[in-house]
Amino acid sequence: MSALTLAGVSGGYRGAAAVSAIDLTVGRGEVVALVGLNGTGKTTLLRLAFGMVRPTAGRVSVLGTPVAGLPAAIWGRVGYLVDTPLAYPELTVRENLRMALSLHGRSAARLDQCLGRWRLRESAGRRLRHLSLGNRQRVGLAAALAHDPDLVVLDEPGNALDPAGVIILRDELRRRADAGAGVLVSSHHLDEVARVADRVLVMNAGRLVGALDPHGAELERAFFAMVRADDEERVR
Ligand SMILES: Nc1ncnc2c1ncn2[C@@H]1O[C@H](COP(=O)(O)OP(=O)(O)OP(=O)(O)O)[C@@H](O)[C@H]1O
């Protein structure tokens, strides 16, 4: 059973399809990265996966169950950060993480472990709104992953993180995948995704146009060649 499957999914905004005919499977135990230029539809694809934008065509299943009417028990096995983080500015870091755990039916016993993993112990008592952007992003990611989800979907998770945060993120994604979760992340940073992804999918003009070998040489060159070839194909 896959962690996430999109079959023939299209959708967008105000009747215009921002994303078309997406076939995508994220297996258990793998990290899949979605890369593409600004405005190519990465965020929209992730929104479509969870019904935040309603698909005009196609089917989505999450952990083997159709996403429409997904039972709470399955939602509880999903961790995502797309658009707004599951975090409140007026609460402290500790309170935010305790709430994220409790919303997913987990005890606060792992709160300390979570603060430690994300190196947030020193800021545990501070209100979120007083933290730097990068530390707020750490809290958002920690909240999304605190309950050890079986499906992880993150939009540009490396945004605003410092190099230490990027390393923690990478380790946490790998840890989830090694524990059998499926992980889907969008990113602009090819070198960053190459370090963590098992597969790199390229998006252009609202469609998936190919895959890159994350361990291949000249990833950047291969990426631009793929995008250019697709652009040329489309104007023909
Ligand atoms: N809320 C919205 N309402 C209308 N159009 C939108 C909305 N969000 C995105 N779009 C449009 O949909 C298209 C795809 O945008 P999307 O944000 O999915 O791209 P992206 O690949 O995530 O871009 P970026 O890398 O810049 O974050 C763009 O043309 C964008 O202008």
TrEMBL record:
Q: Pfam family of this protein, just one?
A: ABC_tran
InterPro entries, per database record: AAA+_ATPase, ABC_transporter-like_ATP-bd, ABC_transporter-like_CS, P-loop_NTPase
CDD domains for this protein? ABC_DR_subfamily_A
Give all residue intervals belonging to the ABC transporter domain: 4-230
User: Domain of life of the organism in this record?
Assistant: Bacteria
Keywords, alphabetical: ATP-binding, Nucleotide-binding, Transport
Q: Does the keyword ATP-binding apply?
A: yes
Name the SUPFAM superfamilies for this protein: P-loop containing nucleoside triphosphate hydrolases (SSF52540)
Protein known as: ABC transporter ATP-binding protein
Source organism: Propioniciclava coleopterorum
